[in-house]
Amino acid sequence: MEQPNFSYIDQLSRGDDVFKQKLLDIIKIEFPEEKAIYLKNIESRKFKEAAENVHKLKHKISILGLEKSYVVATNFENNLIESSDLGREEFEDVLEVMTNFLSKL
Amino acid sequence: MDCIIIDDEATARAIIEQLCLEVPDVNVIKTFPNAIQAIKYLNQNEVDLIFLDIHMPDFTGFDFIQTLKKPPKIVLTTSDTQFAIEAFEYDCIVDYLVKPITLSRFEKSVQKALSLSTMPAQSEPSTTESLDDNSGNDLYVNIDRRLIKIDIPSIYLVEAKGDYIYVKTENKNYTVHSTLKKIEDKLPNDLFLKVHRSFIININKIVDIEDNSVLIKKDVIPVSRSNRPELMKRLNLL
Protein backbone atom coordinates (compact mmCIF):
# COMPACT_ATOMS: atom_id res chain seq x y z
CA MET A 1 0.00 0.00 0.00
CA GLU A 2 1.12 3.54 -0.78
CA GLN A 3 2.97 5.15 2.13
CA PRO A 4 3.05 8.82 3.20
CA ASN A 5 6.15 10.88 2.50
CA PHE A 6 7.56 14.35 3.15
CA SER A 7 8.05 15.28 -0.49
CA TYR A 8 5.55 18.16 -0.52
CA ILE A 9 6.29 19.32 3.03
CA ASP A 10 10.04 19.41 2.35
CA GLN A 11 9.46 21.31 -0.87
CA LEU A 12 7.33 23.80 1.02
CA SER A 13 9.55 24.23 4.08
CA ARG A 14 12.76 24.55 2.01
CA GLY A 15 14.96 23.54 4.92
CA ASP A 16 13.00 25.50 7.50
CA ASP A 17 12.77 22.78 10.15
CA VAL A 18 10.83 24.99 12.53
CA PHE A 19 8.06 25.45 9.98
CA LYS A 20 8.14 21.75 9.06
CA GLN A 21 7.63 20.77 12.69
CA LYS A 22 4.95 23.42 13.16
CA LEU A 23 3.03 22.09 10.15
CA LEU A 24 3.34 18.48 11.31
CA ASP A 25 2.15 19.47 14.78
CA ILE A 26 -0.93 21.11 13.27
CA ILE A 27 -1.63 18.04 11.12
CA LYS A 28 -1.19 15.75 14.13
CA ILE A 29 -3.88 17.72 15.97
CA GLU A 30 -6.23 18.36 13.08
CA PHE A 31 -6.15 14.98 11.32
CA PRO A 32 -7.50 12.86 14.23
CA GLU A 33 -10.28 15.43 14.77
CA GLU A 34 -11.31 15.35 11.11
CA LYS A 35 -11.08 11.56 11.04
CA ALA A 36 -13.28 11.25 14.15
CA ILE A 37 -15.94 13.55 12.66
CA TYR A 38 -15.86 11.55 9.42
CA LEU A 39 -16.24 8.23 11.27
CA LYS A 40 -19.14 9.59 13.30
CA ASN A 41 -20.95 10.77 10.17
CA ILE A 42 -20.31 7.63 8.12
CA GLU A 43 -21.45 5.42 11.00
CA SER A 44 -24.65 7.47 11.16
CA ARG A 45 -24.92 7.12 7.37
CA LYS A 46 -24.89 10.89 6.99
CA PHE A 47 -23.34 10.63 3.55
CA LYS A 48 -23.49 14.29 2.62
CA GLU A 49 -21.70 15.33 5.80
CA ALA A 50 -19.23 12.47 5.38
CA ALA A 51 -18.49 13.70 1.84
CA GLU A 52 -17.60 17.10 3.30
CA ASN A 53 -15.29 15.40 5.80
CA VAL A 54 -13.60 13.34 3.08
CA HIS A 55 -13.16 16.52 1.06
CA LYS A 56 -11.29 18.16 3.90
CA LEU A 57 -9.20 15.04 4.60
CA LYS A 58 -8.16 15.00 0.93
CA HIS A 59 -5.94 18.01 1.52
CA LYS A 60 -3.97 16.17 4.18
CA ILE A 61 -3.77 13.10 1.97
CA SER A 62 -2.15 15.23 -0.73
CA ILE A 63 0.13 17.03 1.76
CA LEU A 64 1.48 13.63 2.80
CA GLY A 65 2.25 12.82 -0.83
CA LEU A 66 -0.39 10.09 -1.17
CA GLU A 67 -1.23 10.57 -4.83
CA LYS A 68 -3.03 7.27 -5.47
CA SER A 69 -4.87 7.54 -2.18
CA TYR A 70 -6.04 11.00 -3.22
CA VAL A 71 -7.79 9.40 -6.20
CA VAL A 72 -9.34 6.81 -3.86
CA ALA A 73 -10.62 9.63 -1.64
CA THR A 74 -11.99 11.62 -4.57
CA ASN A 75 -13.89 8.59 -5.90
CA PHE A 76 -15.25 7.87 -2.45
CA GLU A 77 -16.28 11.50 -1.97
CA ASN A 78 -18.17 11.40 -5.27
CA ASN A 79 -19.89 8.16 -4.25
CA LEU A 80 -20.94 9.69 -0.93
CA ILE A 81 -22.40 12.68 -2.76
CA GLU A 82 -24.47 10.12 -4.72
CA SER A 83 -25.51 8.55 -1.36
CA SER A 84 -23.35 5.46 -1.79
CA ASP A 85 -20.60 4.31 0.56
CA LEU A 86 -18.82 2.33 -2.15
CA GLY A 87 -15.08 2.64 -1.57
CA ARG A 88 -15.39 3.14 2.17
CA GLU A 89 -13.07 0.29 3.12
CA GLU A 90 -10.34 1.41 0.73
CA PHE A 91 -10.61 5.00 2.00
CA GLU A 92 -10.48 3.95 5.62
CA ASP A 93 -7.34 1.91 4.86
CA VAL A 94 -5.78 5.19 3.73
CA LEU A 95 -6.80 6.84 7.00
CA GLU A 96 -5.23 3.96 8.90
CA VAL A 97 -1.94 4.33 7.03
CA MET A 98 -1.92 8.06 7.80
CA THR A 99 -2.76 7.45 11.45
CA ASN A 100 0.15 5.03 11.81
CA PHE A 101 2.52 7.39 10.01
CA LEU A 102 1.60 10.39 12.16
CA SER A 103 1.73 8.41 15.40
CA LYS A 104 5.37 7.62 14.76
CA LEU A 105 6.43 11.26 14.28
CA MET B 1 -0.07 44.08 -0.48
CA ASP B 2 -1.87 43.53 2.81
CA CYS B 3 -3.70 40.24 2.77
CA ILE B 4 -5.87 37.99 4.89
CA ILE B 5 -6.35 34.22 4.70
CA ILE B 6 -9.72 32.57 5.16
CA ASP B 7 -9.77 28.80 5.50
CA ASP B 8 -11.50 26.51 7.98
CA GLU B 9 -8.48 24.20 7.97
CA ALA B 10 -5.56 25.23 10.22
CA THR B 11 -3.14 23.23 8.06
CA ALA B 12 -4.14 25.20 4.97
CA ARG B 13 -3.83 28.53 6.79
CA ALA B 14 -0.33 27.62 7.97
CA ILE B 15 0.75 26.61 4.46
CA ILE B 16 -0.53 29.82 2.85
CA GLU B 17 1.07 31.91 5.57
CA GLN B 18 4.37 30.17 4.90
CA LEU B 19 4.03 30.70 1.15
CA CYS B 20 3.38 34.41 1.76
CA LEU B 21 6.67 34.63 3.63
CA GLU B 22 8.44 33.35 0.53
CA VAL B 23 7.20 36.07 -1.80
CA PRO B 24 8.01 39.76 -1.52
CA ASP B 25 5.25 42.39 -1.35
CA VAL B 26 2.76 40.20 0.49
CA ASN B 27 2.02 40.90 4.12
CA VAL B 28 -0.36 38.61 6.03
CA ILE B 29 -2.37 40.82 8.38
CA LYS B 30 -4.67 38.18 9.82
CA THR B 31 -6.01 34.68 9.27
CA PHE B 32 -9.58 33.50 9.84
CA PRO B 33 -11.05 30.02 10.31
CA ASN B 34 -14.41 31.09 8.88
CA ALA B 35 -15.95 33.71 6.64
CA ILE B 36 -18.14 35.28 9.31
CA GLN B 37 -15.15 36.43 11.36
CA ALA B 38 -13.54 37.79 8.20
CA ILE B 39 -16.66 39.77 7.29
CA LYS B 40 -16.62 41.40 10.73
CA TYR B 41 -12.98 42.29 10.25
CA LEU B 42 -13.52 43.66 6.74
CA ASN B 43 -16.35 45.86 7.96
CA GLN B 44 -13.73 47.89 9.79
CA ASN B 45 -10.53 47.24 7.84
CA GLU B 46 -9.34 47.27 4.26
CA VAL B 47 -7.07 44.70 2.66
CA ASP B 48 -5.61 44.39 -0.82
CA LEU B 49 -5.86 40.66 -1.25
CA ILE B 50 -7.76 37.71 0.22
CA PHE B 51 -6.76 34.06 -0.03
CA LEU B 52 -10.13 32.42 0.23
CA ASP B 53 -11.10 28.78 0.59
CA ILE B 54 -14.26 27.97 -1.36
CA HIS B 55 -15.23 24.86 0.51
CA MET B 56 -16.19 25.86 4.03
CA PRO B 57 -19.13 24.65 6.12
CA ASP B 58 -22.23 26.87 6.45
CA PHE B 59 -20.78 29.82 4.55
CA THR B 60 -18.85 29.05 1.38
CA GLY B 61 -16.26 31.25 -0.30
CA PHE B 62 -18.80 32.28 -2.93
CA ASP B 63 -21.33 33.18 -0.23
CA PHE B 64 -18.63 35.31 1.36
CA ILE B 65 -17.80 37.17 -1.87
CA GLN B 66 -21.43 38.11 -2.31
CA THR B 67 -21.45 39.88 1.04
CA LEU B 68 -18.67 42.25 -0.05
CA LYS B 69 -19.73 45.56 -1.52
CA LYS B 70 -16.25 46.46 -2.75
CA PRO B 71 -14.32 43.20 -2.78
CA PRO B 72 -10.54 43.38 -2.91
CA LYS B 73 -8.55 41.04 -5.15
CA ILE B 74 -9.33 37.45 -4.25
CA VAL B 75 -7.34 34.29 -4.87
CA LEU B 76 -9.43 31.18 -4.39
CA THR B 77 -7.83 28.19 -2.77
CA THR B 78 -9.53 24.82 -3.12
CA SER B 79 -9.10 21.10 -3.56
CA ASP B 80 -11.69 21.15 -6.35
CA THR B 81 -11.27 22.14 -9.95
CA GLN B 82 -15.00 22.05 -10.56
CA PHE B 83 -15.60 25.67 -9.55
CA ALA B 84 -13.06 27.21 -11.91
CA ILE B 85 -15.56 28.39 -14.50
CA GLU B 86 -17.87 29.85 -11.89
CA ALA B 87 -14.94 31.54 -10.18
CA PHE B 88 -14.07 33.61 -13.21
CA GLU B 89 -17.55 35.05 -13.40
CA TYR B 90 -16.42 37.26 -10.50
CA ASP B 91 -14.28 40.23 -11.49
CA CYS B 92 -12.59 40.33 -8.12
CA ILE B 93 -11.22 36.77 -8.41
CA VAL B 94 -7.75 36.95 -9.90
CA ASP B 95 -6.70 33.33 -9.61
CA TYR B 96 -7.67 29.85 -8.57
CA LEU B 97 -5.15 27.76 -6.65
CA VAL B 98 -5.66 24.02 -6.34
CA LYS B 99 -4.40 22.47 -3.08
CA PRO B 100 -1.77 21.36 -2.29
CA ILE B 101 -0.36 24.70 -3.41
CA THR B 102 3.22 24.79 -4.65
CA LEU B 103 5.50 27.80 -4.25
CA SER B 104 5.95 28.33 -7.99
CA ARG B 105 2.19 28.35 -8.59
CA PHE B 106 1.66 30.61 -5.59
CA GLU B 107 4.24 33.12 -6.88
CA LYS B 108 2.45 33.31 -10.22
CA SER B 109 -0.80 34.00 -8.44
CA VAL B 110 0.66 36.82 -6.37
CA GLN B 111 2.25 38.35 -9.48
CA LYS B 112 -1.12 38.28 -11.17
CA ALA B 113 -2.76 40.02 -8.20
CA LEU B 114 0.04 42.59 -8.09
CA SER B 115 -0.18 43.42 -11.78
CA LEU B 116 -3.96 43.75 -11.60
CA SER B 117 -3.77 45.99 -8.56
CA THR B 118 -1.78 48.52 -10.56
CA MET B 119 -4.47 48.68 -13.26
CA PRO B 120 -7.05 51.50 -13.25
CA ALA B 121 -9.92 50.80 -10.89
CA GLN B 122 -12.72 51.55 -13.35
CA SER B 123 -12.32 48.15 -14.96
CA GLU B 124 -13.51 46.47 -11.82
CA PRO B 125 -17.19 46.65 -11.07
CA SER B 126 -17.87 45.00 -7.74
CA THR B 127 -19.44 41.60 -7.70
CA THR B 128 -22.24 42.67 -5.45
CA GLU B 129 -23.14 45.54 -7.72
CA SER B 130 -23.17 43.39 -10.80
CA LEU B 131 -25.35 40.91 -8.97
CA ASP B 132 -27.55 43.74 -7.79
CA ASP B 133 -28.06 44.84 -11.38
CA ASN B 134 -29.76 41.53 -12.01
CA SER B 135 -31.40 41.26 -8.63
CA GLY B 136 -34.77 42.24 -10.04
CA ASN B 137 -35.01 38.95 -11.86
CA ASP B 138 -32.41 36.57 -10.50
CA LEU B 139 -31.82 34.77 -7.26
CA TYR B 140 -28.69 32.74 -6.64
CA VAL B 141 -29.06 29.70 -4.42
CA ASN B 142 -26.34 27.48 -3.04
CA ILE B 143 -26.94 23.84 -3.97
CA ASP B 144 -24.25 21.19 -3.60
CA ARG B 145 -21.53 23.81 -3.48
CA ARG B 146 -22.75 25.52 -6.65
CA LEU B 147 -24.51 28.84 -6.99
CA ILE B 148 -27.53 28.21 -9.16
CA LYS B 149 -29.33 31.11 -10.79
CA ILE B 150 -33.12 31.07 -10.53
CA ASP B 151 -35.35 33.41 -12.48
CA ILE B 152 -37.46 35.00 -9.73
CA PRO B 153 -40.71 35.48 -11.71
CA SER B 154 -40.65 31.77 -12.59
CA ILE B 155 -40.88 30.82 -8.91
CA TYR B 156 -44.45 29.96 -8.04
CA LEU B 157 -44.07 28.37 -4.61
CA VAL B 158 -41.58 28.16 -1.75
CA GLU B 159 -42.16 25.62 0.99
CA ALA B 160 -40.24 25.32 4.27
CA LYS B 161 -39.30 21.79 5.30
CA GLY B 162 -37.09 21.58 8.38
CA ASP B 163 -33.68 23.03 7.63
CA TYR B 164 -34.48 23.22 3.91
CA ILE B 165 -36.77 25.09 1.56
CA TYR B 166 -38.28 23.70 -1.64
CA VAL B 167 -38.30 26.27 -4.39
CA LYS B 168 -40.71 25.35 -7.17
CA THR B 169 -40.38 27.08 -10.53
CA GLU B 170 -42.01 26.72 -13.94
CA ASN B 171 -39.18 24.51 -15.16
CA LYS B 172 -37.51 22.93 -12.17
CA ASN B 173 -37.69 22.43 -8.43
CA TYR B 174 -34.80 23.10 -6.05
CA THR B 175 -34.04 21.97 -2.50
CA VAL B 176 -31.98 24.60 -0.75
CA HIS B 177 -30.46 24.63 2.73
CA SER B 178 -32.02 27.89 3.93
CA THR B 179 -35.00 29.34 5.76
CA LEU B 180 -38.29 30.78 4.59
CA LYS B 181 -37.39 34.08 6.27
CA LYS B 182 -34.17 34.41 4.29
CA ILE B 183 -35.79 33.82 0.92
CA GLU B 184 -38.76 36.00 1.86
CA ASP B 185 -36.35 38.90 2.33
CA LYS B 186 -34.91 38.31 -1.14
CA LEU B 187 -38.18 38.04 -3.05
CA PRO B 188 -40.04 41.16 -4.27
CA ASN B 189 -42.99 42.02 -2.03
CA ASP B 190 -45.24 42.99 -4.91
CA LEU B 191 -45.01 39.48 -6.39
CA PHE B 192 -44.70 37.16 -3.43
CA LEU B 193 -46.69 36.69 -0.27
CA LYS B 194 -46.24 34.49 2.75
CA VAL B 195 -49.64 32.85 3.18
CA HIS B 196 -48.69 30.38 5.88
CA ARG B 197 -45.70 29.88 8.17
CA SER B 198 -44.42 27.21 5.75
CA PHE B 199 -45.42 28.68 2.39
CA ILE B 200 -44.66 31.68 0.18
CA ILE B 201 -46.60 31.95 -3.04
CA ASN B 202 -46.27 33.97 -6.23
CA ILE B 203 -49.61 35.78 -6.34
CA ASN B 204 -49.50 35.97 -10.14
CA LYS B 205 -49.62 32.17 -10.26
CA ILE B 206 -52.79 31.71 -8.24
CA VAL B 207 -55.40 29.57 -10.01
CA ASP B 208 -58.13 29.90 -7.43
CA ILE B 209 -58.82 30.48 -3.76
CA GLU B 210 -61.21 28.48 -1.66
CA ASP B 211 -61.85 29.15 2.02
CA ASN B 212 -58.50 28.69 3.71
CA SER B 213 -56.52 27.36 0.79
CA VAL B 214 -55.13 28.60 -2.47
CA LEU B 215 -54.45 26.62 -5.63
CA ILE B 216 -51.05 27.36 -7.20
CA LYS B 217 -50.48 25.29 -10.32
CA LYS B 218 -51.45 21.88 -8.99
CA ASP B 219 -50.52 22.54 -5.37
CA VAL B 220 -53.19 23.27 -2.80
CA ILE B 221 -51.58 25.55 -0.21
CA PRO B 222 -53.09 26.38 3.18
CA VAL B 223 -53.67 30.04 3.98
CA SER B 224 -53.42 30.90 7.64
CA ARG B 225 -56.11 33.04 9.19
CA SER B 226 -53.69 35.83 9.99
CA ASN B 227 -52.37 36.01 6.42
CA ARG B 228 -55.69 35.80 4.64
CA PRO B 229 -56.59 39.55 4.92
CA GLU B 230 -53.29 40.54 3.25
CA LEU B 231 -53.87 38.00 0.49
CA MET B 232 -57.35 39.30 -0.16
CA LYS B 233 -56.06 42.87 -0.18
CA ARG B 234 -53.53 41.99 -2.86
CA LEU B 235 -56.08 40.45 -5.21
CA ASN B 236 -57.79 42.40 -7.95
CA LEU B 237 -61.29 41.56 -6.75
CA LEU B 238 -64.36 42.33 -8.83
Fold topology:
The complex is a heterodimer of chains A (105) and B (238).
Chain A: H1 7-13, H2 17-43, H3 47-63, H4 67-81, H5 88-103
Helix pairs in contact in A: 1-2, 2-3, 2-5, 3-4, 4-5
Chain B: E1 2-6, H1 10-22, E2 27-32, H2 35-42, E3 49-53, H3 61-67, E4 73-78, H4 84-87, E5 93-98, H5 103-117, H6 127-134, E6 138-143, E7 146-151, E8 155-161, E9 164-169, E10 173-176, H7 180-186, E11 192-196, E12 199-202, E13 206-210, E14 213-216, E15 219-222, H8 228-234
Parallel strand pairs in B: 1-2, 1-3, 3-4, 4-5
Antiparallel strand pairs in B: 6-7, 8-9, 8-12, 9-10, 11-12, 13-14, 14-15
Q: Can you put this structure into words, describing what you see?
A:
The complex is a heterodimer of chains A (105) and B (238). Chain A is mainly alpha-helical and 105 residues long. Chain A has one domain. In chain A, helix 1 packs across helix 2 and helix 2 runs antiparallel to helix 5. The relative contact order of chain A is 0.17. The model of chain A has no long low-confidence stretch (mean pLDDT 96). Chain B has 238 residues and is of the alpha/beta class. Chain B folds into two domains: 128 residues, Response regulator (Rossmann fold), CATH 3.40.50.2300; 100 residues, Beta Barrel (OB fold (Dihydrolipoamide Acetyltransferase, E2P)). Chain B contains eight helices and 15 strands. In chain B, the strands form four sheets. Chain B has a five-stranded parallel beta sheet with strand order 2-1-3-4-5. Classes of the chains: A mainly alpha (105), B alpha/beta (238). At the A-B interface, helix 1, helix 2 and helix 3 of A face helix 1 of B.
